[in-house]
Amino acid sequence: MISVQSIIESIERHCRETGVAETTFGKKVVNDGKLLSRLRRGKSISIDTYNRICAEIENSTSEVAE
To answer: Across the 66 residues of the chain, what is the mean pLDDT of every consecutive 10-residue run?
Structure first.
């Protein structure tokens, strides 16, 4: 099972590695600049939001590798 903490850590790592602000990441992925702060406060996300986060991280990672 995926924990909220692991999602937060993945987003933080992605933002650090790509130089993207956390608010920019949230806006780009789900049109919510407060996504990460909401997760840190214990809010949940839908499967669709989780899939969008994963897709963004995967796509950005593959672009850097090319």
So the answer is: 93 96 97 97 95 94 61
Q: Which two tokens stand for residue 51?
A: 């899939």
Identify the domain containing residue 10 by its residue range: 4-65
Rounded to a whole number of angstroms, the distance between the first and last alpha carbons of the chain is: 31
| Tokens 């899939």 found at | 51
- What's the predicted TM-score (pTM) here? 0.87
Report the C-alpha gap between 39 and 61 in whole angstroms.
Answer: 22
Number of domains in the chain: 1
Q: Are 26 and 34 in contact, with CB atoms under 8 Å apart?
A: yes
- What is the chain's percent helix, strand, coil content, to nearest 5? 75, 0, 25
